[in-house]
Amino acid sequence: MSFLKTFLVFGFLTAYAKSQSSGQAGSFNATPEIGEKFGCGSKCQTLINIANTADLAITGTAFDFGFYETAANFSFSRPGDLLKLEPMNTSSLDIDYGTSVYRFQYTTRDQDGSSVPSTGFIAFPFSIPKSGKFRPVVYGHSSVGVSRSCAPSNGPGLFESAVWGPLVARGYAIIATDYAGIGNNYTTHKFSNYATHSEDMYYSMVAARAAFPRLFTKEWASAGVFQGGGGVWKLSEHPLVQHPRSGYLGGIAVSPSPRLYDYALFSLDTIYTKPDYMDFGATGEIPFAALAVKRMFPEYDYHFLGNTLKRRMGLVDELQLCTNAVLALVLDLPIEELLSVDGLKNDTFFQQYQRLGGAANGAKAATPLWVSTGEDDSFLRPYSVLEPAAKTCSYGNKLDVRVYPGMDHEPTIYASMEDWIPWIEDRFDGIRRPGCCTNITKTPFNLATAKKSNVWADYLDIAASIPSD
């Protein structure tokens, strides 16, 4: 969940009953008829429609159906093949001056190993390096949604440019996948299936080399935020990057949750069964966790959800919702309508999802991984990082953990940037990191005056301002 506060406030202050653009592919507004069908009353409908305004500000109202249509040459392609490439009109993009961007479609692998299309973008700095080759970093975005219309490469700001933009400013080229199923809808998006995300990341690098031969160094790295951080963690375990000839140097995983079922059980004990459960962004994660399992196992019946939220999950496909609107599904519900305690404890599908799509499941990694967590992260509590990190270290993998006191979900990205950008630079420069694993809690200069943010509180404020049914 990234960079939503400004858009939420904007959405609240403007007309949430925004007219639907003829070029729109998703984030459609809820009507009373649709709401009645899916157990979503007037307050629920209002929250979705406000959230849709925020989502459309991120993903755009004019979806480029032609570009995201499956390429004619896909049928005979193999993973890593380049299918489409076109320059983007940067004058209309909210990105840093001097940046050049190309949109591309390429072939990757789905969870069953079959070939599927994916899309994304490649961003270049203004100047060519002295060596003539750019250092490439594959980027995995955070949760933007599960529908085709949520594609970062279609958005006016290419989603998290405030995260990957500083890398471009340091001279790196960014290869940013949308993930299969977002943008192009040949397959469904396997949300937080880190195995498929790692495939999308790996083959985006292969396709980028095909798009721009001899323009990248052999060495490459990765960086990801939240959902993308889980993909980076899994990429570190990918068989194709375990040999030095792959050129892979390591990755950055900002506030990931590589073992979602374990984290759900932790949240059950520490958040969901407490009176203040709605004060935590982790409660907003409940429908996303359910979608992760559903997209891996289509027959899954949302076993761990409460009855009302289970009905509302149909709105995700009906209205082609993106992140803000999915979060809005929980804001007016008591915990018993959100979650089944027994269902969660005994959810064999969820357990199997973690075994197949999670990371830190026992695999070895030849390259180092840098991970962070914010001590005050209300979406992904530090447990979501620290417990998998301990497991990963016990396997003999190289891991650098950094903990940021007083930082919530999004602020951790920026508080940690002064650490993880130099970490990437050190990998490209061949500087050896010490030891097997490190775990350091950072010392703030002045936590009392450091800028902070609680994004989830903004959702709650908006929900509180809307009359109940």
UniProtKB/TrEMBL annotation:
<dbReference type="GO" id="GO:0016042">
    <property type="term" value="P:lipid catabolic process"/>
</dbReference>
<protein>
    <recommendedName>
        <fullName>Serine aminopeptidase S33 domain-containing protein</fullName>
    </recommendedName>
</protein>
<dbReference type="InterPro" id="IPR029058">
    <property type="entry name" value="AB_hydrolase_fold"/>
</dbReference>
<keyword id="KW-0732">Signal</keyword>
<feature type="signal peptide">
    <location>
        <begin position="1"/>
        <end position="19"/>
    </location>
</feature>
<dbReference type="InterPro" id="IPR005152">
    <property type="entry name" value="Lipase_secreted"/>
</dbReference>
<dbReference type="GO" id="GO:0004806">
    <property type="term" value="F:triacylglycerol lipase activity"/>
</dbReference>
